[in-house]
Every structure is written in structure tokens, then in C-alpha cells.
Amino acid sequence: MPARAIQFEPLAEDALLLRFGDRIEPMLNDRVHAAVAALHGLPSLECVPAYASVLLRFEPTAWQGDDAPAHQRVERAVRDALATGHAPAGAGRRHEIPVCYGGSHGEDLPALARHLGLPDEAVVARHAGADYRVAMLGFAPGFPYLLGLDPVLAMPRRSDPRPRVPAGSVAIGGLQTGIYPADLPGGWHLIGRTPLRLFDAHAGTPSLLAAGDRVRFRAIGAEEFAELEAAARP
Amino acid sequence: MSVRVLKPGLLSTLQDGGRPGHAAIGVGRAGAMDLPAWRLANALVGNRGGEAALECTLLGPTLRFERAAWIAITGAPIAARVEGTELPGWAASWLPAGSVLQLGRMEAGCRSYLAVRGGFDVAPVLGSRSSDLHAGLGHAGGRALQALDTLPLGGAAMGTPPSDHLHALPWRLDPQPWFDFAQAPLMLLPGSHDALLDEASRQALHTGTFRIGNASNRTASRLDGARLQLRAPLELISEAALPGTVQLPPSGQPIVLMAEAPVTGGYPRIGQLAAVDLPRLAQRRPGDPVCFRRGTLEQAADRLRRREQALDALCRQIEQRLQHDGFLLRMTGPA
Question: Do B240 and A145 touch (CB under 8 A)?
Fold first, then answer.
């Protein structure tokens, strides 16, 4: 990764933003994940990946030195780590997420299909047929923003967001698709629901998904949904 | 043994130093809005630091102490009574078992902190006892206190009662350096996009006066006043967000992200509040004035460092004084 193509922007006394670009693009996002992997060993540094940038929050007292202020020392350490780091390409765990599409689990599926001029089954086939990457988590604990949606399935967000979207809902908003980890307000179109629990603050690994992970969806029926939901109940 | 909530107050939540290190999975830091006040409240009751205290907003709760306890109240000046006896702020007081502590309205400011010796000992979530109201993390699923809630107290750090009666230590801290009575201007650092503001908006941001909006909360302080605009519309993709960031949503009403800031955001960033001034903004209530003075990152970092040194020194002095007075007994077990 050519270090010169990175912008460093000091945001606050304890924060520095690494920016690779300003677009939602898989290539830029890949660089984000590679950078996070390369910076893994640096102490007193929290990395927060986004679509095309990584926020670094550091302990100013830990990084302060006589020769340079903390920001410069962090920037130097980051440049060194990125120049020497060889993060494995395609790192990230793989997940298969079972989804019951349509019906009461995805009540916007018919409207979305009508809007796109496709049969419901074609929307499901395209959504479940793609490979996704978790670009970042945000909005709420464990909420994944997924890259890789078939552009044919893009639909602008609802003009009237719902005050409560049920946990596990799989949804499309613009060119993005995501999964609501908890009951939350939301303006995306609900096309299905997974019985898996995406976030449990008390689990050893609280978030099922991490930035950089790969995701595929598998269409399941209502019966299998009920069985898996019962098994996943805390 | 515990504290029973009789009246919850307007918005009372347990807060500690926050929940760092989990932003990558969408979990923000939360934590006390006025960190120095929180830290000093803990110091005054002889806590080691890091214990959860109660953050009260504008109108405090009424609490019954099922057991005797040392308490201290800092932050915004608030009426505090136990059966008609006024308790001093910024001082340690001894409450016998069965005391009903009534916290009233704040005379000024927005947030007061009630610390108890041993801390409020609710189960930590991801390493913190802070309530994150948006994410639903912390005590009772991350909600504010409700009547009839029971809050457990840390048991290892009781200390010895000076008497059976309500009793305040005869010395108190000077709140002056730690509470911004004058509501002085706040230092604003450049943001990523402030050069894109039109001239009138730049002028208004740096020299005008805003007022804290009614919809302000632990997530953001909303600034009523001049509507600001960019010279040209700007479409941004989501990037990580931080407390202190001044965002400009399409409404033109700037908002300053606070302790419960979301971990990502996509609005233009027109400034960054100096971290040292975050607690001062946290103490402004709806209608209070806010004006900014420009500063540099170096100045802000220097002020922050000096404040932390002053805070460390004061906490050491408090500890020595408590030891000298015989009120700070060695705690049993790990703190």
C-alpha cells in the first residue's frame, strides 16, 4: 500500500483520521481492513474502520514525547506499520446468515420487487446470491453496513422511517444492505429476517460480525426460522 | 445493601469513565458528561477512581439509603437535603442507614454527580457501568433511573462512621475552577469542512452567540442561533464520529456531539470543541449562551494536559486530607 496515498487529518487531541478516499468502493474499503490489520500491534491505539477511512484514537499521554507531539508520533508509527505490514489479502471470517425472506419477516419485499419490476423470487435470488463484505459497523452496536449489493436491488430509503424495526431484520437502503441487531428505528426496506443474534454485550465476542468479514445469505423457510430462533434464544 | 430510588429525577443515569475500545463494533464510549466533576466526587468519598456515580440532570432524584454511606455531590450546584438538613456540595457527608436524600433543582448548570463510597456496584457491561441510553447498554438495559429501582453499593469500602448522625466533613472543595459559573467562550478547533462554510456562516460560528437548544441530550448539544450553510452542498460518506465534533446537518443548526456520540456520522464537520471545554458545554442547559473562540490543536492539548495535572494533584491532596483526618480506611480486597 503506497503510504503517500493516505491523508492524515488530526481530528481532536486524541484522534487522527486516516483517509484513503471519499467514496463507497470495495477497493478503498479493502485498504481500510488491511490498514486495521497492519496497525493491530500498536499499543494505546483504538482503530475504528469506516468505508474509506480509519479513525485512530490514542492515549495522548502514552504517545507524547520530547521530540514531537502525540499526533506526529502516532502518524510516524502508523506510516511505519503500513509500510512494513503485510496483512493477508482477503482476511476476515466467513459467515452464512440464514434469512427468511418476505411474508411477515420482510414486509417490504413485495413493494421493493414491484418498484424494481422483478418477481419477489428474483429479488431473493439476487440478494442471497451475492458475496458481501462488512464494510463497517455503526448506527447501533453490531449493525453491519454490507458492501456487495447487486445494484439492480438498490432502492432509496423510505421517506417515513419506522419507529421500530424488529431485531434481525435484513434490509436494503440505497445501495447498501444491512441487518438490524436489535429493535431500532429505521428507514430501510425490510426484505427478510435472520433468527441469528447479531449482538450480545455479555458474550465473549459481543458482535457476530466484524468489519472486514465476508457474508452470504441463505434463504430459509418460516419453519426453519422458528427452529433456529428457538435455538438462539438466550 | 443498596440505595432505593423513590423519585427518579428528570434524567438520572449511572456513569463512570466510559466504555472505550468498542467503537469498531458500533459501541460508543458514553460515560460522565462532566468527567472532572465525576472524578472529584469519587475522590471526595475516598474512592480509588473509576467507580460509577449517579449523573443527575436539572432535577435530581430522591433516594433512600438502606445502609449508612459516605456521599459527595459535585458538578452543577444542586439543593441536597436529608430530612430538612442541607448538605454542602463539593464535600463528603456521612448518611446513616435509612436516610432519605432529596436532590432538588440545580441553581445553575445542567448535571450534578452523586458519588458513594464503594461506588454503585451494578454489573459492568463491556468493562463499564455507564448507561448508554441509545445503545441500551448498562444498568437495567441502559435506561435512566425509575422509581423503585434498587442500586447495589460496593461493599468493601464502607469506612467507619464518625457518629450515628448525619455529618458533613468540615472542609469542601472550591468549585470555582471546576464549574464554569461565568459561561466563558469555548475553544473551537478547525474542522474538516469549516473552510467550506460561506463567509457569513464562518463569521457567525466564530463570533456569534448561540443558545443551547431544547432537544439537547447526552448525545448532542444543539445550538440555536444563526443558521449556517456551506458554499455548496457536500455529500459525505459515513466516517467515525467523536465527542466534541461540531456537525452541520442540512437544517443549518449546528450540533456538538457529546459523551454518547454515535460512533459514525456523515454530516460535515465544521469544528472540533477542545476536549478541555467539553465538560463546560455539558453544564450548559437549554437557553444558556454558547460562543466560540478559535484555537489550535496545540493550545487545546496543552490546556488539557494542564487540567489533568491539576486534577491529579487535587485528587492526591484529597486523599491525603482524608487519610490525615482518619476517614480513609484501607479498603479490603481489590478496588
Answer: no
10 Å CB burial of residue B163 (0-12, 13-18, 19+) is exposed
Interface predicted TM-score (ipTM): 0.92
Give yes or no for B135 touching A (CB within 8 A): yes
pLDDT tens sequence across A185-206 = 999 999 999 999 999 999 999 9
Cβ-nearest to A201 among B137, B242, B308: B137
* Residue burial A69-86, b: 16+ Cβ < 10 Å; e: rest: bbbebbbebbeebbeebe
CA–CA separation, B109 vs B172, rounded Å? 19
Cα separation values, B217 from A49, B133, B246, B284, Å: 26, 10, 15, 11
Task: Tell me the three cell numbers of residue A198.
Answer: 447479531
User: Given the DSSP bridges, would you call strands B100-106 and B53-57 parallel, antiparallel or unpaired?
Assistant: unpaired
Across the A:B interface, residue pairs with CB atoms under 8 Å apart total 114
Work out the widest C-alpha separation in chain B, in whole angstroms.
68
Mutate to test the interface with B, among A22, A33, A48, A207 (most CBs of B within 10 A): A48
Total-model pTM: 0.93
Gap from B167 CA to chain A (nearest CA, Å): 39
Element (H, E) at A133: strand A132-137
Phi-psi map region of A128: left, alpha, beta (phi>0 left; psi -120 to 50 alpha): alpha
Looking at the complex, does the CB of residue B196 fall below 8 Å from at least one CB of chain A?
no
Three-class SS of residue B136?
Answer: coil
Contacts of A87 (CB under 8 A, 6+ apart): A33, A34, A35, A37, A38
* Cβ contact, residue pair B264, A139, below 8 Å: yes
